[in-house]
């Protein structure tokens, strides 16, 4: 490969992609433009809001493109005019057409927050936590037309700390992903990377999670519930019902105390460790919650205004 740095077209949308874009600029890689999703209406007023990547790109003085669909002929014409040597994609949010995947001489490379082929799909960090994994990582992958099926260019592993939530893991892997991306691009430009095909027999899926998927099933074992809460905290959010109101749960701790006499979802008691709730096996301590129409608060603050009634159960939409 020539010693000249490849011209990069960056494609990304959410906060997760921002560290990668910023590090490319910090390391003086020539980013010739940034492609991100169109501004979307948000909030009660449905005001149009720019993506985090667009805000970062404008702050960095980069050209921004916001096609509704990257496969539209109008954008493909723009893409051919830009003629990038490489496309870097980080959580962009659209499926790339073959014209873009096969266009750049150095290909399209993707930052994926899992150890592929495990957790292919839209929610790899969530599912790694939900499944109770003790490690995860970042994969830099050369894209093909499949869903996260391309050859592995670079991979780095990181342990998952006990009690780590999705929000914390997201921020850590965003930074680690940026660092891995730069190292992979350096090796690609130097011609020293050897792509490694993924083993499809080892693949697992990480489908997108919707808001309704966050309902806590109290009949599950306590440890599974704690992992579930961590994997959805705070997006899309784990929740249950207290007196018919939504109770969001952002952190929970499991205690495997053997069989529990109370029915799953029953509030067993309160104490320094939190609000103790019976599970299908063991108990769960709720540690960080938000009751409908109230602010999020640590459990100690919540319990100061909570009247404990023996036998009260969580999980019933109509109250108990």
Topology, number of strands: 15
Shape call: elongated
**Distance N terminus to C terminus?**
68 Å
Mean pLDDT: 94
Helix content: 10-25%
Low-confidence stretches: none
Strand order of the biggest β-sheet: 5-2-1-6-7-8-9
Structural class by secondary-structure content: alpha/beta
Main beta-sheet annotation? 7 strands, mixed
Q: Strand-residue fraction?
A: 25-35%
CATH architecture of the largest domain: 3-Layer(aba) Sandwich
Descriptive report:
By secondary structure, the chain is an alpha/beta fold. The chain has 8 helices and 15 strands. The strands form 3 sheets. Strands 5-2-1-6-7-8-9 form a 7-stranded mixed sheet. Strands 10, 11, 12, 13, 14 and 15 form a 6-stranded antiparallel sheet that branches. Helix 1 (18-26) packs parallel to helix 6 (166-190). It starts with 7 loop residues before the first strand and ends in a 16-residue tail after the last helix. The mean pLDDT is 94.
